[in-house]
Amino acid sequence: MKKYRTHTCGELTKSNKGQKVSLSGWINKKRDHGNLLFLDLRDNYGLTQCVIDKSNDIFKKIEKLSLETVIKISGLVIERDIETINKNISTGEIEIKINELDILGKTKELPMPVFSDQEYSEEIRLKYRFLDLRRKKIHENIILRSKVIAFIRNEMQKLGFLEFQTPILTSSSPEGARDFLVPSRLNPGKFYALPQAPQQFKQLIMISGFDKYFQIAPCFRDEDARADRSPGEFYQLDVEMSFVEQEDVFEVIETLFMKLFKNFSNKKIIHKKFPKITYEESMLKYGSDKPDLRNPLEIIDLTNIFERDDVKFDIFKKLVKNGSIVRSLVTKNTKDKPRSFFDGIDKWAKEQGSSGLAYFTFEKNDQISAKGPIGKFFSEMSLMEIIKQTNANIGDTIFLSCGKKSDVEKLLSVARNKIAEELNLIDKDSFSFCWVVDYPMYEIDEITKKIKFSHNPFSMPQGDINKIDLSNPLKLKAYQYDIVCNGIELSSGAIRNHIPELMYKLFEIAGYSKNDVNNQFSGMINALSYGAPPHGGIAPGIDRIVMLLAGEKNIREVTLFPMNQNAQDIMMNAPSEISEEQLKELNLSIKKKT
Question: What are the distances in angstroms from CA 374 to CA 315, 329, 341, 431?
Answer without folding.
Answer: 11, 15, 16, 38
